[in-house]
From TrEMBL:
Residues 23-77 are annotated as: Disordered. Keywords: Signal, Sugar transport, Transport. GO terms for molecular function: carbohydrate transmembrane transporter activity; maltose binding. Pfam families: SBP_bac_8 (PF13416). Belongs to the bacterial solute-binding protein 1 family. GO terms for cellular component: ATP-binding cassette (ABC) transporter complex, substrate-binding subunit-containing. Residues 39-66 have a biased composition (Acidic residues). It comes from the Bacteria. InterPro entries: Maltose/Cyclodextrin-bd, SBP. One of its GO terms (biological process) is maltose transport. This is ABC transporter substrate-binding protein.
Length: 455
């Protein structure tokens, strides 16, 4: 749907990975980028230097390592600021402008500080009363934050609540209370190479048939790609696992996720697991494909379809691939693929030194279209504020498409028990792709998850 004029060189080991017996062993992070290797030529030149030059180089390396270590340290709260916000390095510059404006309006000093590991560093600082007043992060941290007693409900009026998309607001709630102001959403969708696949497939079966026709004709190497790897990827497997009413947790009487009701081994989840097995048999899922391999195959025009999120688009644009974004196709027998919905939000710390100011900022600034649009510019994710979403959707076809792809998505469980799920469920789905029986493998994963939750 978008085209770029500049091309980038893409280095890929995808062909080797696809022919290998096993895939990557590490867990994938949707937002992670690839890292470049050090130049071999520099190493050769260094070997020819005399001892003094080698000493200098070693000293420089130690200094660089020290700088790198320092860069990962937690921020220290600015004692001279009445309102302190912690965010990552992407959002901090934008937030600084708005915090300064807020400070001028209320006659206070504000400070936006960069945290390299926002979640952990906030927890650590809050435990010693040195944390910020406001922290920016993902909605699925919420249960852990509430359990630790480090965030407070946001006092949001019903009129303000009505300004947000229904799903984004739902993701901010825990035990019936709102704990944050949402500003962006993201979910998986089908990214299609329109040169190879001009039309959106009507079903997953149609996708498999057309994709394999391209492979048989020599026009593609893979019919479809999405991350699996030999340790699995529960996030990317969830749309198929949940297609028949299965998933991870059941709900309690309040409609919230129930950690005492794990449904990974349920009949409905097993039916979804059988679809994962079918997709593997059709060549759609492959344990040798991880996120970097997937993106390389698509950017090199070697596959027509990729299920990923907005974070994959820069690589596609850089490769000058003409693309479209569609909802993940459903199955012909009625199985409806349901991806996870992720939401970014502003939390108010329970240990805020100025809780009234913190509540005022998140309720009067973060809820404005202007600020939501400014955050959109650095994140390129659909805004959570409905008016801002309407504005960017009218101007950006991608955002309109991502919004449609995420319609009906299930907010990722924000309860602490979710931490016990990722590894066992990911491995189970990888094993199913590798040939394991879903009726045996998913109940076994459920037992492991329940055991982990009980620890």
């Amino acid at each position: 749907m978008k085209r770029t004029t500049g091309a980038v060189a893409i280095t890929s080991a995808a062909a080797l990975l696809l022919s290998a017996c096993g895939g990557e062993s590490g867990e994938e992070n949707a937002d992670s980028g690839s890292t470049a290797e050090e130049s071999a030529a520099e190493d050769d030149a260094a070997a020819e230097d005399d001892a003094a030059a080698e000493d200098d180089a070693a000293a420089e390396d130690e200094e660089a390592a020290g700088d790198e270590a320092a860069s990962t340290e937690a921020p220290v709260r600015d004692e001279n600021a009445e309102l302190v916000i912690w965010a990552d390095d992407v959002r901090a510059p934008i937030l600084t402008e708005w915090a300064e404006q807020f400070g001028e309006e209320y006659g206070i000093t504000t400070q936006v500080q960069v945290a390299t590991d926002v979640r952990q560093q906030f927890k650590d600082a809050a435990n010693v009363d040195q944390g910020p007043d406001i922290v920016v992060g993902a909605h699925d941290w919420l249960g852990e934050f509430v359990q630790n007693g480090i965030v407070e409900p946001v006092q949001m009026s019903s009129d303000t609540q009505a300004l947000f998309t229904e799903d984004s607001l739902a993701a901010t709630q825990f035990d019936g209370q709102i704990y944050g102001v949402p500003y962006a959403t993201e979910s998986l969708g089908l990214i299609r190479n329109t040169a190879l696949a001009p039309d959106a497939p009507a079903s997953m079966e149609e996708l498999a048939s057309f994709g394999n026709e391209l492979v048989d004709a020599g026009d593609a190497d893979q019919a479809f790609v999405t991350p699996v790897s030999n340790v699995g990827d529960a996030y990317h497997a969830y749309p198929y696992l949940s297609a028949y009413g299965g998933g991870i947790f059941g709900t309690n009487s309040d409609g919230g996720w129930d950690p005492d009701n794990v449904i990974v081994g349920s009949e409905e989840s097993i039916q979804g697991g059988e679809k994962i097995a079918w997709m593997a048999e059709e060549g759609l899922l492959n344990v040798n494909v991880d996120s970097p391999t997937m993106e390389s195959l698509f950017a090199e025009g070697r596959t027509p379809y990729m299920v990923a999120g907005p974070w994959a688009i820069p690589n596609v644009e850089g490769a000058e691939i003409e693309y479209a974004i569609d909802p993940i196709p459903d199955f012909e027998d009625g199985g409806e693929t349901v991806p996870f919905l992720g939401v970014q939000m502003f939390y108010v710390a329970s240990g805020a030194q100025n809780p009234t100011l913190a509540q005022e900022f998140v309720n009067t600034y973060v809820t404005t279209e202007e600020m939501q649009l400014a955050l959109f510019e650095v994140g390129q994710r659909p805004p959570a504020l409905q008016s801002a979403l309407d504005t960017v959707s009218a101007e950006d076809e991608d955002i309109e498409a991502w919004s449609a792809a995420g319609e009906g998505a299930s907010p990722m469980p924000n309860i602490p028990a979710m931490n016990a799920v990722w590894g066992p469920l990911g491995q189970a789905t990888s094993d199913i792709v590798g040939g394991a029986d879903p009726a045996e493998r998913l109940p076994a994963a459920e037992e492991e998850i329940v055991s982990n939750i009980g620890r």
